[in-house]
Amino acid sequence: MEACELLGELYHRVHDRGVKDRVNVWSAVMRSTVADHDPIRRARAAVEAADALVHDNQLVDAKGYLEEAERLLPPDHPLWSGVEGVRAFMFILDSRFREALAAARRAVDIANRGGTMLERSRAHSILAHPAILPLMGEAGRETMRAWLAEAEASGDERLIIDGRHFILSDTWTRGIVDETQLRQAEEGVRKAGEMGWTLDEASLRMVLGWGYFLTGRWLEAGSHLGRANTLVESQGGRIRGMFHLLLPYFRGNLAMGYGRIDEARRIFEGGLAHARFHDLIWLNHDLGRCHQMRGDLAAAEGAMAEAQAARDRFRCIVCGCQADGVTAEFYAAVGDGAQAALLMARAAETAEEIGHVATLIRVRRAKARVALARGAVGEAVEAAHGAVALGEGLPLPQVLEQGQSLLLLGQAQAAAGDGDAARTSWEEARNRFSALGASWFLRQVEETQGAASARMSSGTGGGG
């Protein structure tokens, strides 16, 4: 029985052992344990088996194990943290995200009061789930930073690596990146490589690559994303988790940023061939952006509609917020102001609540485009200035996004007759895109500026 318990703990960490192995060993512990003689040991086995089953989407069986654990545990036992953690994941799978957040917070509170460091780490792990941690906004970010500091003080490398995963949750959900996160992730990559922890190295490299992409360090982004992809492929598909969901999204965005639009389309479409969950939302809306860049607006609108259908199906608050922002900006760009306005309002409400700055930026850009289409140039300038200001307030500049905001600001300023200000904004946008090697976006600056010059020469546009 002790050997089964040890295997169960190891299987939780070993990437080529799936949930069925965990269920088997913990079921063996339960068969060998009489509830009247050792109720806590049996309850622990039930919680562990339930945790494995819920990660295999076997909710009915997981619920049965969880109910047994609840019958056996005294009210104040730390194992209730595990019960609440499993319950939180069940809520996530049922798209009940606010209830999941409440359960995960209870798991952390219980573990903090009487659990071991490992139990506390596992409780923080469920709270760090990308579908619920962003709902806490900055409080979630600070919670994970505080936990990582405790893990580092313990000197336990396993806990420290896990803590570094937790703080990166914000990087790919809310797009928040700072130098501390990047430094801690780099150290995590180094340590995971040293220890031979392939799963951790691939995961940290993947999100670190996204952080570097957002902040304009695209050579580093490509290096980390490429290495993560190699590590995943080297394992013959045995690595599970978020890789197959996120890697196509991150790699496709990097290709799209460089202007390799057909490559980006192939990456997104390849990811969609295997997508089943929330990745149907993000892969579709960024495939839509890719089609838009190619000039195929019918295909772009179809992909955006697929993203919205997936948003409605999964009801993920965070993914839905981002999807609404992306699609709002698309519809504003193609002249559908009514649809853009509907999506802007919905996106802004959630983005304000959870501090999703990237979405707030897109909302302001969409608002500027809709205002420009109506001829409300003052409103357009104000909204575009708002997008630029939000970008400037981020911990690290996000160069591609800021370049797009400046390009749009220049358009609004030109429409308002302020040619000097427009030229300044376009020059700043050009500098950012040139530094990145963002060729498609650089062409947009040239074409926009050329069109504005032609209008002013013919006397049909704003002055300056």
Please tell me the overall pLDDT. 90
**What fraction of residues sit in β-strands?**
under 5%
**Low-confidence parts lasting 5 or more residues at pLDDT below 50?**
none
Q: C-alpha Rg, in Å?
A: 24 Å
What percent of residues adopt helix (DSSP H or I)?
over 70%
Q: How many extended strands?
A: 0
Shape: elongated
Q: Give the structural class.
A: mainly alpha
Total count of helical runs of at least 4 residues: 23
Distance between the termini: 81 Å
Largest sheet: none
Order of helices and strands: HHHHHHHHHHHHHHHHHHHHHHH
Task: Describe, in plain words, how this protein is organized in 3D.
There is one protein chain. This protein has 464 residues and is mostly helical. It has 23 helices and no strands. It has helices at 2-11, 19-31, 39-55, 59-72, 80-93, 97-114, 117-127, 138-154, 157-173, 179-195, 198-214, 218-234, 243-257, 261-272, 279-294, 297-314, 317-333, 337-354, 357-374, 377-392, 399-415, 419-436, 439-458. Helix 22 packs antiparallel against helix 23 (439-458). The chain is elongated, with a radius of gyration of 24 Å. The termini are far apart. The model has no long low-confidence stretch (mean pLDDT 90).
Jot down its keywords.
464 residues; mainly alpha; 79% helix
